[in-house]
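Example record

The entry below shows one chain as it appears in the dataset: sequence first, then structure tokens.
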Amino acid sequence: MMLEKFKISFFIVVGSYALLVLASYLFNGEFDTSIIGMWGLILGLLMLIAALPLHKIVFFGGRGIMGVQSPEIPGDEHLHNKIHKSYEKEHKEEISINRPLQDVLSLAGIIIILISLFMV
């Protein structure tokens, strides 16, 4: 399972850099590594943002903005953990589908950022 994630991440990284090299050559007429590195950083950050579970951030992250009076999440930590567990039980199928995708995007984003740091 993990080997498949690495393979998919590898193909995403290679494909992304192939497209970046092609775009750099088409727009500039040369292979400029600093431009490829800069766009690689942006692409890697976008992949990491895409890997975030935004629905959880929106649902559970409003606690700090709304305070402890939030009707969805009580102030008590024990009840807070209980709501997290019940949310995971209700959305077990979504989590099992989204988690491998998040893993692949996270791995690809981190690898792209590391490669692009050496190029800039």
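Notes for this example: The mean pLDDT is 80. Residues 92-119 form the longest helix (28 residues).
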